[in-house]
Design brief:
The complex is a heterodimer of chains A (114) and B (114). Chain A is an all-beta fold. Chain A is built from no helices and twelve strands. The N and C termini of chain A lie far apart (41 Å). In chain B, the strands form two sheets. In chain B, strands 2, 4, 5, 6, 9, 10 and 11 form a seven-stranded mixed sheet that branches. Chain B has a four-stranded antiparallel sheet with strand order 1-3-8-7, with no helix packed on it. Chain B starts with a strand and ends with a strand. The chains are: A mainly beta (114), B mainly beta (114).
Chain lengths: 114, 114
C-alpha cells in the first residue's frame, strides 16, 4: 500500500528566505515521487520528479528535493522565496510496481510575505 | 500546442440529472486519469485508463463511470449526480504506464450539484 503525508497544511515565509515543504511517503515498492504546484484557480504543473536515479533532484523555478530512503522523505526546498511562489504544493507517490495509481498528499499552501 | 482539454469548465446541475465531462489530449498518451479535488483532501484518483478499452478504479470510484473508446478521449460520466459529488475535477494524461512518467493536467471542471 502507498500513502503520502504532507506534514504542514500551511507554511508562511518572508520573501527572500528559504522554503521547506515536508513530505513523507510509504510504499511497498520502490517509489517514483513528484512535486506539483497549483497556483490559485489554475491547473497543476510539475515541479520535479524522482525516479530512482540521482537522489537530489532539481526542478523548475529554483526548487529542488532530496529523496531519503532511510527517512522515507522527499522534502521540497528553495533557497530564496519569491512572491510568485505563493501557491499550493502537492507531493505525489507512485509505486514502481504493483499498481498504476498515483497517490496525492493533502497539499501545503505556501504564503510568501513581503 | 500539447494540452489536455476539459469541457465544460463550469457546470451547475441538479441531483439525479445525468452528465458527462469530456477530456481530450493531443499528445498520443496511453495513460489517462480522473481526479477530484476537495479542500483539505488533496486530489483523489477516481478512475484511470492504461490504454484503449482498459480502465480501472482509483480510490474514489463510487458514483462515476468512464470509458476509453479512443486513445485521445476519456469522458467522466455521472449517471445520477448527488450533492456530495460537488467538487473540482481534473483530467490528466501521461505518456505511458511507467512509474516515472509525469502527468499533464487539464484546467479543471468545477461541478456543483444542487
Amino acid at each position: 500500500a502507498q500513502s503520502v503525508t504532507q506534514l504542514d497544511s500551511h507554511v508562511s515565509v518572508s520573501e527572500g528566505t528559504p522554503v521547506l515543504l515536508r513530505c513523507n511517503y510509504s510504499s511497498s515498492y520502490s517509489p517514483s515521487l513528484f512535486w506539483y504546484v497549483q497556483h490559485p484557480n489554475k491547473g497543476l504543473q510539475l515541479l520535479l520528479k524522482y525516479t530512482s536515479a540521482a537522489t537530489l533532484v532539481k526542478g523548475i523555478n529554483g526548487f529542488e528535493a532530496e529523496f531519503k530512503k532511510s527517512e522515507t522523505s522527499f522534502h521540497l526546498t528553495k533557497p530564496s522565496a519569491h512572491m510568485s511562489d505563493a501557491a499550493e504544493y502537492f507531493c505525489v507517490v507512485r509505486a514502481i510496481s504493483g499498481t498504476y495509481k498515483y497517490i496525492f498528499g493533502t497539499g501545503t499552501r505556501l504564503k510568501v510575505l513581503a | 500546442e500539447a494540452q489536455v482539454t476539459q469541457n465544460p469548465r463550469y457546470l451547475i446541475t441538479v441531483t439525479g440529472k445525468k452528465l458527462t465531462v469530456t477530456c481530450s489530449q493531443n499528445m498520443n498518451h496511453e495513460y489517462m486519469s480522473w481526479y477530484r479535488q476537495d479542500p483539505g483532501l488533496g486530489l483523489r484518483q477516481i478512475y484511470y485508463s492504461m490504454n484503449v478499452e482498459v480502465t480501472d478504479k482509483g480510490d474514489v470510484p463510487e458514483g462515476y463511470k468512464v470509458s476509453r473508446k479512443e486513445k485521445r478521449n476519456f469522458p467522466l460520466i455521472l449517471e445520477s449526480p448527488s450533492p456530495n459529488q460537488t467538487s473540482l475535477y481534473f483530467c490528466a494524461s501521461s505518456l505511458g504506464t511507467s512509474p516515472g512518467n509525469e502527468q499533464f493536467f487539464g484546467p479543471g471542471t468545477r461541478l456543483t450539484v444542487l
